[in-house]
Write a structure and sequence with these properties.
With about 60 residues, this protein is mainly alpha-helical. It is about 75% helix and about 0% strand. The chain has helices spanning about 1-10, 15-25, 30-40, 45-50, 55.
């Protein structure tokens, strides 16, 4: 559930990864990255680069 919210945050905003992570309820960067990678197969940064519409347009 939290990772789905984070994915949406990465897809629709340019907020820093830390900010999105805190908004969805994670305070441990290492744990967040680990869970995110296990679920999506990508690091948060790679996910944003692949799916963020603003990043693609810019």
């Amino acid at each position: 559930m939290k990772i789905e919210a984070a994915k949406k945050g990465f897809e629709t905003s340019r907020k820093p990864i830390q900010e999105v992570m805190y908004e969805v309820g994670y305070s441990d960067t290492k744990a967040f990255r680990s869970v995110f990678r296990r679920i999506t197969g990508l690091s948060p940064l790679d996910y944003r680069n692949k799916y963020n519409r603003e990043a693609m347009a810019g």
